[in-house]
Amino acid sequence: MFAAYWERDARAYRAVLLEALIVYPECFPGHYEEMSRPLEEIERPLAGEVILGAWIKDEWVGIVAFAAKSFPKQRHARTIRPLYVKERFRRKGIAGLLLGAVLESAAHHVEQVEIMVSDIPEHIDLFERFGFRNCGLMPRGIRINSEDVDTWFGYSVN
Which CATH class is domain 6-157? Predict the structure, then answer.
């Protein structure tokens, strides 16, 4: 159910990410135009970045990534990046499985996991159920055209 190998799974990962950017552009800081470029032009995952996918049969149905911090003084923490489950597979526990897998992996490597999500109660609730604590709200954290969306910051300590 989980794992990602960039050479084998990059197209599947990107397809789910592009869907996320279309369905919920206010939830992700990335741009559809940027991620829809040819795969050869898109940066490979950074060192220390883990990408997980959930699939049913041969279809990728959800993704999550978490990345190490680049500064030495912040390497005790990792940041969760896109967490998305396709619409028709929601309410089946897949987001929880992905988040649980990230937290399980992080428990062996870092002391803290951080998240920034759009200030949407349904999204925040998921992270709070997994023990994330609120540490702030950023007004206008994401801007789409001229529309601003506040972002919620949370953290979980191992």
Answer: alpha beta
